[in-house]
Amino acid sequence: MPAMDMTNPVALPADWRDFLALTKPRVMSLVVFSGLAGLLAAPQLPPFVLGFTAILCIALAAGACGALNQWYEADLDAKMRRTSKRPLPDGRMDRQSALHFGVGLGFFSVLLMGLATNWLAAALLAASILFYVLIYTVWLKPRTPHNIVIGGAAGAFPPLIGWVAATGHFAALPLLLFAIIFLWTPPHFWALSLFVRSDYAAAGIPMLPVVAGIENTRRQIFLYSLPMAALAVAPWPLGLAGPIYGGCAAILSFVFVALAARVLTNRAAEPARMGPEKHLFAFSVFYLFALFTVLVADRWLVS
Amino acid sequence: MKLEDEVVRRQRARARIMALLLGAFVVLLFLITIAKTGLNW
User: Fold this and answer.
1) pTM across the whole model
2) Interface probe, candidates B1, B5, B10, chain A, greatest A C-beta count within 10 A
3) Within this chain, do residues A177 and A247 fall inside the same structural domain, yes or no?
4) DSSP string covering A22-70, please?
5) Chain-chain contact of A50 with B3 (C-beta, under 8 angstroms)
Protein backbone atom coordinates (compact mmCIF):
# COMPACT_ATOMS: atom_id res chain seq x y z
CA MET A 1 0.00 0.00 0.00
CA PRO A 2 1.43 3.43 -0.86
CA ALA A 3 2.50 5.39 2.16
CA MET A 4 0.59 8.59 2.83
CA ASP A 5 1.33 11.36 5.26
CA MET A 6 -1.68 11.59 7.55
CA THR A 7 -0.05 13.59 10.30
CA ASN A 8 -2.31 16.04 12.04
CA PRO A 9 -1.57 19.40 10.36
CA VAL A 10 -1.97 21.43 13.58
CA ALA A 11 -0.34 18.85 15.91
CA LEU A 12 -3.49 18.63 18.03
CA PRO A 13 -4.20 15.44 19.98
CA ALA A 14 -7.19 13.71 18.36
CA ASP A 15 -10.56 14.40 19.93
CA TRP A 16 -12.13 11.43 21.78
CA ARG A 17 -15.09 11.62 19.38
CA ASP A 18 -12.74 10.78 16.53
CA PHE A 19 -11.68 7.58 18.32
CA LEU A 20 -15.37 6.75 18.65
CA ALA A 21 -15.87 7.44 14.93
CA LEU A 22 -13.00 5.02 14.15
CA THR A 23 -15.10 2.18 15.59
CA LYS A 24 -17.87 2.71 12.97
CA PRO A 25 -20.70 2.76 15.56
CA ARG A 26 -23.48 2.23 12.99
CA VAL A 27 -21.90 -0.95 11.63
CA MET A 28 -21.24 -2.02 15.21
CA SER A 29 -24.95 -1.86 16.07
CA LEU A 30 -25.83 -4.66 13.61
CA VAL A 31 -22.84 -6.74 14.77
CA VAL A 32 -23.85 -6.31 18.42
CA PHE A 33 -27.45 -7.15 17.64
CA SER A 34 -26.61 -10.37 15.78
CA GLY A 35 -24.22 -11.38 18.58
CA LEU A 36 -26.95 -10.73 21.14
CA ALA A 37 -29.41 -12.78 19.09
CA GLY A 38 -26.97 -15.70 19.03
CA LEU A 39 -26.54 -15.47 22.79
CA LEU A 40 -30.27 -15.18 23.52
CA ALA A 41 -31.14 -18.05 21.15
CA ALA A 42 -28.86 -20.43 23.09
CA PRO A 43 -30.52 -23.13 25.22
CA GLN A 44 -28.92 -21.86 28.41
CA LEU A 45 -28.04 -18.31 29.38
CA PRO A 46 -24.96 -17.23 31.34
CA PRO A 47 -25.34 -14.90 34.35
CA PHE A 48 -26.36 -11.42 33.21
CA VAL A 49 -22.97 -9.79 33.77
CA LEU A 50 -21.16 -12.50 31.78
CA GLY A 51 -23.65 -12.22 28.91
CA PHE A 52 -23.28 -8.43 29.00
CA THR A 53 -19.49 -8.78 28.92
CA ALA A 54 -19.66 -11.19 25.97
CA ILE A 55 -21.71 -8.66 23.97
CA LEU A 56 -19.40 -5.85 25.08
CA CYS A 57 -16.41 -7.86 23.80
CA ILE A 58 -18.12 -8.43 20.45
CA ALA A 59 -18.76 -4.66 20.23
CA LEU A 60 -15.14 -3.84 21.13
CA ALA A 61 -13.84 -6.36 18.58
CA ALA A 62 -16.09 -4.80 15.91
CA GLY A 63 -14.68 -1.40 16.92
CA ALA A 64 -11.14 -2.77 16.58
CA CYS A 65 -11.97 -4.06 13.09
CA GLY A 66 -13.37 -0.65 12.11
CA ALA A 67 -10.30 1.17 13.44
CA LEU A 68 -7.80 -1.18 11.75
CA ASN A 69 -9.79 -1.04 8.51
CA GLN A 70 -9.67 2.77 8.55
CA TRP A 71 -5.98 2.71 9.46
CA TYR A 72 -5.16 0.47 6.49
CA GLU A 73 -7.49 2.18 4.00
CA ALA A 74 -6.85 5.83 4.95
CA ASP A 75 -5.49 6.67 1.50
CA LEU A 76 -8.43 4.92 -0.24
CA ASP A 77 -10.96 6.64 2.05
CA ALA A 78 -9.50 9.99 1.04
CA LYS A 79 -10.48 9.28 -2.58
CA MET A 80 -14.12 8.42 -1.86
CA ARG A 81 -16.75 11.10 -1.13
CA ARG A 82 -18.59 8.76 1.26
CA THR A 83 -15.52 8.23 3.45
CA SER A 84 -13.37 11.33 2.92
CA LYS A 85 -14.58 12.98 6.16
CA ARG A 86 -13.44 10.12 8.39
CA PRO A 87 -10.86 11.12 11.05
CA LEU A 88 -7.76 9.84 9.16
CA PRO A 89 -8.40 11.15 5.62
CA ASP A 90 -9.68 14.42 7.08
CA GLY A 91 -6.39 14.86 8.98
CA ARG A 92 -7.98 14.95 12.44
CA MET A 93 -5.90 11.99 13.68
CA ASP A 94 -2.49 10.49 12.93
CA ARG A 95 -2.31 6.93 11.60
CA GLN A 96 -0.21 5.60 14.47
CA SER A 97 -2.91 6.53 17.02
CA ALA A 98 -5.51 4.66 14.94
CA LEU A 99 -3.24 1.59 14.69
CA HIS A 100 -2.50 1.54 18.43
CA PHE A 101 -6.17 2.06 19.26
CA GLY A 102 -7.30 -0.76 16.94
CA VAL A 103 -4.69 -3.29 18.06
CA GLY A 104 -5.21 -2.43 21.74
CA LEU A 105 -8.99 -2.72 21.46
CA GLY A 106 -8.69 -6.05 19.64
CA PHE A 107 -6.33 -7.62 22.21
CA PHE A 108 -8.43 -6.29 25.09
CA SER A 109 -11.70 -7.66 23.68
CA VAL A 110 -10.25 -11.17 23.15
CA LEU A 111 -8.62 -11.28 26.58
CA LEU A 112 -11.76 -10.08 28.35
CA MET A 113 -13.94 -12.56 26.41
CA GLY A 114 -11.66 -15.44 27.44
CA LEU A 115 -11.61 -14.42 31.10
CA ALA A 116 -15.34 -13.71 31.35
CA THR A 117 -16.86 -16.54 29.27
CA ASN A 118 -14.69 -19.24 27.67
CA TRP A 119 -11.60 -19.46 25.48
CA LEU A 120 -13.43 -21.04 22.53
CA ALA A 121 -15.53 -17.85 22.25
CA ALA A 122 -12.33 -15.80 22.64
CA ALA A 123 -10.61 -17.81 19.88
CA LEU A 124 -13.60 -17.26 17.57
CA LEU A 125 -13.51 -13.54 18.38
CA ALA A 126 -9.78 -13.39 17.57
CA ALA A 127 -10.39 -15.35 14.35
CA SER A 128 -13.14 -12.92 13.31
CA ILE A 129 -10.86 -9.88 13.87
CA LEU A 130 -7.97 -11.49 11.98
CA PHE A 131 -10.28 -12.64 9.18
CA TYR A 132 -11.76 -9.16 8.74
CA VAL A 133 -8.46 -7.30 8.89
CA LEU A 134 -6.03 -9.68 7.16
CA ILE A 135 -8.19 -11.82 4.84
CA TYR A 136 -10.82 -9.22 3.86
CA THR A 137 -9.26 -5.76 4.21
CA VAL A 138 -5.63 -6.48 3.33
CA TRP A 139 -5.86 -9.48 1.00
CA LEU A 140 -9.24 -9.79 -0.76
CA LYS A 141 -10.74 -6.28 -0.93
CA PRO A 142 -8.08 -4.67 -3.15
CA ARG A 143 -7.63 -7.79 -5.31
CA THR A 144 -10.85 -9.51 -6.31
CA PRO A 145 -14.49 -8.59 -7.06
CA HIS A 146 -15.45 -11.58 -4.93
CA ASN A 147 -13.99 -9.82 -1.88
CA ILE A 148 -17.34 -9.46 -0.19
CA VAL A 149 -18.37 -13.09 -0.84
CA ILE A 150 -15.51 -14.59 1.18
CA GLY A 151 -15.03 -11.52 3.39
CA GLY A 152 -18.68 -11.75 4.41
CA ALA A 153 -17.67 -14.56 6.73
CA ALA A 154 -16.13 -11.97 9.07
CA GLY A 155 -19.52 -10.34 9.67
CA ALA A 156 -21.16 -13.75 10.10
CA PHE A 157 -19.16 -14.63 13.23
CA PRO A 158 -21.11 -12.63 15.90
CA PRO A 159 -24.15 -14.94 16.39
CA LEU A 160 -21.79 -17.93 16.53
CA ILE A 161 -19.63 -16.15 19.11
CA GLY A 162 -22.70 -15.14 21.14
CA TRP A 163 -23.94 -18.75 21.20
CA VAL A 164 -20.50 -20.21 22.08
CA ALA A 165 -20.04 -17.58 24.81
CA ALA A 166 -23.31 -18.81 26.36
CA THR A 167 -22.88 -22.57 25.90
CA GLY A 168 -19.16 -23.24 25.36
CA HIS A 169 -19.77 -25.34 22.22
CA PHE A 170 -20.99 -25.25 18.60
CA ALA A 171 -24.46 -26.31 17.47
CA ALA A 172 -26.48 -26.48 14.25
CA LEU A 173 -28.55 -23.31 14.80
CA PRO A 174 -25.67 -20.82 15.24
CA LEU A 175 -23.90 -22.41 12.25
CA LEU A 176 -27.10 -21.79 10.24
CA LEU A 177 -27.16 -18.17 11.46
CA PHE A 178 -23.53 -17.88 10.34
CA ALA A 179 -24.52 -19.21 6.89
CA ILE A 180 -27.52 -16.83 6.65
CA ILE A 181 -25.35 -13.73 7.27
CA PHE A 182 -22.67 -15.16 4.96
CA LEU A 183 -25.18 -15.35 2.07
CA TRP A 184 -26.93 -12.09 3.08
CA THR A 185 -23.72 -10.03 2.87
CA PRO A 186 -23.16 -10.10 -0.94
CA PRO A 187 -26.68 -8.86 -1.93
CA HIS A 188 -26.52 -6.27 0.88
CA PHE A 189 -23.12 -4.85 -0.16
CA TRP A 190 -23.62 -5.20 -3.90
CA ALA A 191 -26.88 -3.23 -3.68
CA LEU A 192 -24.90 -0.44 -1.97
CA SER A 193 -21.95 -0.71 -4.34
CA LEU A 194 -24.27 -0.33 -7.36
CA PHE A 195 -25.27 3.22 -6.41
CA VAL A 196 -21.84 4.27 -5.05
CA ARG A 197 -19.80 2.43 -7.71
CA SER A 198 -18.17 5.66 -8.97
CA ASP A 199 -16.64 6.05 -5.48
CA TYR A 200 -15.22 2.51 -5.61
CA ALA A 201 -14.00 3.03 -9.17
CA ALA A 202 -12.27 6.30 -8.17
CA ALA A 203 -10.51 4.50 -5.30
CA GLY A 204 -9.53 1.55 -7.52
CA ILE A 205 -11.38 -1.02 -5.40
CA PRO A 206 -12.50 -3.91 -7.64
CA MET A 207 -16.09 -4.18 -6.39
CA LEU A 208 -18.30 -6.35 -8.60
CA PRO A 209 -20.20 -3.47 -10.37
CA VAL A 210 -16.86 -1.82 -11.24
CA VAL A 211 -15.26 -5.00 -12.62
CA ALA A 212 -18.14 -7.15 -13.91
CA GLY A 213 -20.71 -4.49 -14.80
CA ILE A 214 -24.09 -3.41 -13.46
CA GLU A 215 -26.25 -6.10 -15.11
CA ASN A 216 -24.01 -8.92 -13.93
CA THR A 217 -24.09 -7.52 -10.37
CA ARG A 218 -27.91 -7.33 -10.45
CA ARG A 219 -28.03 -10.98 -11.56
CA GLN A 220 -25.64 -12.02 -8.78
CA ILE A 221 -27.72 -10.15 -6.18
CA PHE A 222 -30.83 -12.08 -7.22
CA LEU A 223 -29.00 -15.42 -7.38
CA TYR A 224 -27.51 -15.00 -3.89
CA SER A 225 -30.86 -13.97 -2.40
CA LEU A 226 -32.43 -17.36 -3.32
CA PRO A 227 -30.20 -19.67 -1.20
CA MET A 228 -30.17 -16.98 1.51
CA ALA A 229 -33.99 -17.09 1.66
CA ALA A 230 -33.97 -20.90 1.76
CA LEU A 231 -31.43 -20.93 4.60
CA ALA A 232 -33.35 -18.25 6.52
CA VAL A 233 -36.46 -20.45 6.61
CA ALA A 234 -34.49 -23.70 7.19
CA PRO A 235 -34.38 -23.58 11.03
CA TRP A 236 -38.15 -24.20 11.10
CA PRO A 237 -38.36 -27.45 9.04
CA LEU A 238 -35.16 -28.63 10.71
CA GLY A 239 -36.87 -28.32 14.10
CA LEU A 240 -34.43 -25.67 15.36
CA ALA A 241 -37.08 -22.93 15.57
CA GLY A 242 -40.85 -22.77 15.85
CA PRO A 243 -43.63 -21.87 13.38
CA ILE A 244 -43.67 -18.18 14.36
CA TYR A 245 -40.07 -17.90 13.23
CA GLY A 246 -40.76 -20.02 10.14
CA GLY A 247 -43.76 -17.92 9.07
CA CYS A 248 -42.05 -14.55 9.65
CA ALA A 249 -38.82 -15.74 8.00
CA ALA A 250 -40.80 -16.90 4.94
CA ILE A 251 -42.60 -13.51 4.61
CA LEU A 252 -39.41 -11.46 5.18
CA SER A 253 -37.44 -13.62 2.75
CA PHE A 254 -40.21 -13.39 0.14
CA VAL A 255 -40.05 -9.57 0.33
CA PHE A 256 -36.23 -9.71 0.11
CA VAL A 257 -36.35 -11.89 -3.02
CA ALA A 258 -39.10 -9.70 -4.53
CA LEU A 259 -36.96 -6.58 -4.01
CA ALA A 260 -33.96 -8.43 -5.48
CA ALA A 261 -36.15 -9.30 -8.50
CA ARG A 262 -36.97 -5.56 -8.91
CA VAL A 263 -33.23 -4.87 -8.87
CA LEU A 264 -32.78 -7.58 -11.50
CA THR A 265 -35.31 -5.94 -13.84
CA ASN A 266 -34.07 -2.37 -13.31
CA ARG A 267 -32.17 -1.08 -16.36
CA ALA A 268 -31.01 2.26 -14.96
CA ALA A 269 -27.28 2.98 -14.86
CA GLU A 270 -27.40 6.36 -13.04
CA PRO A 271 -27.42 6.24 -9.22
CA ALA A 272 -30.33 8.74 -9.12
CA ARG A 273 -32.59 6.16 -10.82
CA MET A 274 -31.50 3.21 -8.69
CA GLY A 275 -34.54 3.23 -6.40
CA PRO A 276 -34.84 -0.60 -6.32
CA GLU A 277 -31.18 -0.92 -5.28
CA LYS A 278 -31.63 1.67 -2.50
CA HIS A 279 -34.82 -0.05 -1.32
CA LEU A 280 -33.10 -3.45 -1.25
CA PHE A 281 -30.14 -2.04 0.68
CA ALA A 282 -32.39 -0.39 3.29
CA PHE A 283 -34.62 -3.48 3.56
CA SER A 284 -31.63 -5.81 3.89
CA VAL A 285 -30.63 -4.09 7.14
CA PHE A 286 -34.20 -4.30 8.46
CA TYR A 287 -34.39 -7.93 7.26
CA LEU A 288 -31.51 -9.08 9.43
CA PHE A 289 -32.75 -7.15 12.48
CA ALA A 290 -36.28 -8.54 12.03
CA LEU A 291 -35.17 -12.12 11.33
CA PHE A 292 -33.02 -12.31 14.46
CA THR A 293 -35.63 -10.55 16.60
CA VAL A 294 -38.23 -13.12 15.55
CA LEU A 295 -35.78 -15.97 16.21
CA VAL A 296 -35.21 -14.79 19.77
CA ALA A 297 -38.93 -14.08 20.31
CA ASP A 298 -39.77 -17.57 19.02
CA ARG A 299 -37.18 -19.12 21.35
CA TRP A 300 -38.42 -17.25 24.44
CA LEU A 301 -42.14 -16.86 23.85
CA VAL A 302 -42.98 -20.15 22.14
CA SER A 303 -40.26 -22.79 22.37
CA MET B 1 -8.95 30.22 21.28
CA LYS B 2 -5.19 29.68 21.37
CA LEU B 3 -3.73 26.40 20.12
CA GLU B 4 -2.30 25.59 23.57
CA ASP B 5 -5.75 26.03 25.15
CA GLU B 6 -7.30 23.66 22.63
CA VAL B 7 -4.54 21.08 23.26
CA VAL B 8 -5.18 21.23 27.02
CA ARG B 9 -8.97 21.05 26.51
CA ARG B 10 -8.66 17.92 24.37
CA GLN B 11 -6.17 16.29 26.74
CA ARG B 12 -8.51 16.93 29.68
CA ALA B 13 -11.51 15.56 27.78
CA ARG B 14 -9.57 12.41 26.84
CA ALA B 15 -8.27 11.97 30.39
CA ARG B 16 -11.82 12.31 31.76
CA ILE B 17 -13.16 9.67 29.33
CA MET B 18 -10.24 7.35 30.14
CA ALA B 19 -10.88 7.72 33.88
CA LEU B 20 -14.56 6.88 33.41
CA LEU B 21 -13.72 3.84 31.26
CA LEU B 22 -11.14 2.57 33.74
CA GLY B 23 -13.61 2.98 36.60
CA ALA B 24 -16.26 1.08 34.63
CA PHE B 25 -13.71 -1.64 33.86
CA VAL B 26 -12.85 -2.09 37.53
CA VAL B 27 -16.55 -2.41 38.42
CA LEU B 28 -17.06 -4.87 35.53
CA LEU B 29 -14.10 -7.03 36.66
CA PHE B 30 -15.51 -7.09 40.19
CA LEU B 31 -18.94 -8.18 38.93
CA ILE B 32 -17.37 -10.82 36.63
CA THR B 33 -15.43 -12.22 39.59
CA ILE B 34 -18.62 -12.42 41.65
CA ALA B 35 -20.47 -14.16 38.79
CA LYS B 36 -17.63 -16.60 38.07
CA THR B 37 -17.25 -17.62 41.70
CA GLY B 38 -20.99 -18.20 41.91
CA LEU B 39 -21.48 -15.85 44.83
CA ASN B 40 -24.83 -14.11 45.20
CA TRP B 41 -26.18 -11.62 47.63
Assistant:
1) 0.89
2) B10
3) yes
4) HT-HHHHHHHHHHHHHHHHTSSS---HHHHHHHHHHHHHHHHHHHHHHH
5) no
